Amino acid sequence: MRIILPGIKGKIERMVSLDDTASKYGSGLIEVFATPAMVALMEKTCLESVLPHLEKGFNTVGTEICVKHIKATPVGMKVTCESELTVADDRKLSFTVKAWDEQGEIGHGTHERFIIDTEKFIKKLQQ
Fold first, then answer.
1. Are 16 and 74 in contact (CB under 8 A)?
2. Model pTM?
3. pLDDT by residue (tens digit) across 12-66?
4. Are 105 and 98 in contact (CB under 8 A)?
5. Any residues with CB less than 8 A from the CB of 3 and at least 6 apart, and which?
6. In Å, what is the CA distance from 20 to each residue of 25, 69, 79, 85?
7. What is the distance in angstroms between the CA of the first residue and the CA of the last residue of the chain?
8. Inter-CA distances, 22 with 14, 38, 42, 43, 53, Å
9. By the 8 A CB rule, do 79 and 12 touch?
């Protein structure tokens, strides 16, 4: 397994659509960027940042997330998420994450992922 070093950064930008809203996710009744959508964007940003650094056949899975969603974002506004790998302890990866829209910060926190051998992971699930 290849050694992953702290400092890897990721960034994803996207426009908030109706599919990203609290009413669509069932986490609320208003058409604003849903907390679960923000969490998914944060996880994806972390995942995509380290994928190019993994050996073929390896992947990562999310194991913990602790974030605050501090501001609502309307449909049609751009949201940006950035991540930084802060700790790489063998197969455990720890990130800081931050998201903002065109008016300022909307959320921040930490996320942990675990490096897995995809084939072994799937086989274990099937047992």
1. yes
2. 0.95
3. 999 999 999 999 999 999 999 999 999 999 999 999 999 999 999 999 999 999 9
4. yes
5. 88
6. 7, 14, 11, 26
7. 24
8. 16, 10, 16, 18, 34
9. no
